[in-house]
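Course assignment 3, question 2. Fill in each field.
Student: A.L.
Task: Predict the tertiary structure for the chain below.
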Amino acid sequence: MALPSETGSGNPDDFQPETLRGSPGFFRVARSRAGRRWWFIDPHDQPVFLRSVTAVTRHAVNPRRAGPPDPVPPGGEAAPFAREASRRLLGWGFNTLGPRSDADLAGLGLHQIGLVDFLHAGGPVIHAHGLLLPDVFDPSWTAFCEARAKRAAEVWRGRTDLVGLHTDADLEWTSSVSAGRLGLLQICLALEPAHTAHHAAWEFVLAPHAGDLVALGRTWGLDLPHRETLRQLTHAERPIDHPAHRDDDHRFTREFARRYFQTTIGALRRHDPEHLVLGARFSTSPPAAVLAECGWPLVDVLALPAPSDSSAADQPAPDQPRLWVDLGLHENPARTDHAPAVLRTGPTRLERRLAGLRRTLAAAAVHPLVVGYDWARWSDEPGDIPPFASGLVHLDGTEAREHTELPAPLNTRAETRRRRSRPA
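Answer field:
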């Protein structure tokens, strides 16, 4: 199939063939020759800059409703919501439904991003000290992933409106140990013995010391007479701050991430070779050890928070296409305004946040690595306080104009600006 150029000439030579990822007839991704920009390419071979919104669901306006929406038959109660939501999104310049959106919005003029949710595939989950991950060392987890991938492939098979699939959207990785927080290795060492990751972690750290716990303690600068000592340190939220431990934590985190991505994405590739794999949706930046294990050829497009300065300087994988996710005015740790709350003249906190978000959206449209962005939520969440809320609509269904008036004009010009921007 001919790939269109950034000027719309349809010349297949305008995209670098060695960068092309995906299956013909479905969404693909490639980098242009002239502008050296990455683009999504739709099933009709047209370049697309994605503007998506997460969790477009009719039940988002009911804060008392828990769990996923119930299936709705054709012509059922969701039809009016689906028509109105798609009309609003298209009117605001969005072109894609993000993960966890209602299925009955399909076919109403919007692309879709899917979510497999391997975290809840049925295997053991590690939830401790801010960590939320599957126990990738558990022998049953691979089978659960195969079953989950097979089910997802059956749902999406043949769907040309699907851009790609996220493996997960709820994972919580720990920060780097150097940031003064508990690392993945220390947390796994302190888990209950029921977790296979607990035993894998101890085997990992003791193997180089022939099983000698005291020798391990000397290497890490600790008095470590027994394992309970480490458990008590961890429960007290006291990280092991030693270069040897930081090195061990980095290597263990890479092994953990390698198992996660190779198992989940391997299962997806086997059962669904048609669609792009967007990897895990990182709403906050994970450690470098994790990102080192989720590049191409495993992941087609990275899903990362926008960097604070809207550049790629502080992000890894400098030549990999990416989605910027979780944008909005809500309090996201990756983009929190840390200016002191003092009496001051000049822009208010809201004005500063609006200006920063405007710069991020404008930068996304012309950034050579960014192929789209994702707004955090369709609707505010219970407890949100406008204007620092997360949705394009409020809980009562009314438009959050402080949000929609910002992206709408930028959305409508995004692809034109991307085509016309100067080559990198």
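Instructor remarks: The longest helix spans residues 243-271. The radius of gyration is 23 Å.
Grade: pending
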